[in-house]
Design goal:
Helix 4 packs antiparallel against helix 6, helix 7 crosses helix 11 and helix 9 packs across helix 10. The protein contains twelve helices and no strands. By secondary structure, it is an all-alpha fold.
Length: 206
């Protein structure tokens, strides 16, 4: 059974066990494309994650992916699924994984564009927090900074709140910024970012 077809209620412990079994064979392969097959179990065979709390990694910025994989390996960032999977990745392959996924096309998750009033409020919040300073004008990110535009809504909201309460601790600066932002404003920001379709502005197919 393909893990991408598993129902959302499938137990996390069982999913992790299945991932580890796949990883034992996939990570032994030579080509990075073969090694990356393990990632499809959660992040989707066509780049659309199987759960809305999982992030899109197809087309994500290469430097950001490198840093996150390193943080999962070191324990600076923790996740019950990703931490043990990252531990099986050879350190020499981290850059190759990041380069491979960064070159894939960002998927359209078909999330609705935020209404004008929500967009205006989100833009004001983003400006006050300084989001475009790192994530750039269209929230496409760059280098070691994540693309946020078009990311899964539930993942965005969870991540911002995880930074806010320091459940996610691998970027203290983000924790400070999210702590200074109200939960209501974070909810509006997540709705706005999830609905952004920016491919026409990027000019690189991502």
């Amino acid at each position: 059974m393909l893990l991408s077809s598993l129902p959302a209620h499938y137990g996390r412990a069982a999913l992790l066990a299945a991932l580890m079994l796949i990883g034992q064979s996939a990570l032994a392969a030579d080509a990075i494309e073969d090694k990356a097959k393990i990632c499809a179990a959660c992040h989707g065979e066509q780049g659309i994650p199987i759960q809305k709390t999982f992030p899109v990694i197809w087309g994500q910025n290469e430097g950001y992916l490198i840093y996150q994989l390193r943080d999962f390996q070191s324990g600076a960032r923790k996740n019950e699924l990703m931490s043990p999977i990252a531990a099986t990745i050879d350190k020499a392959d981290i850059n190759a994984f990041a380069a491979y996924f960064s070159k894939l096309k960002w998927p359209n998750l078909q999330q609705p564009i935020a209404p004008a009033d929500i967009a205006a409020k989100a833009q004001a919040t983003a400006a006050s927090v300084g989001c475009p300073g790192c994530h750039l004008a269209y929230f496409q990110g760059d280098g070691t900074t994540a693309r946020l535009a078009g990311q899964n809504h539930d993942y965005l909201l969870k991540t911002m709140n995880d930074f806010r309460d320091k459940t996610r601790g691998n970027n203290p600066g983000m924790s400070d910024l999210m702590k200074a932002t109200s939960p209501d404003d974070l909810a509006v920001l997540a709705q706005y970012l999830a609905g952004l379709q920016i491919e026409a502005y990027l000019g690189n197919g991502r």
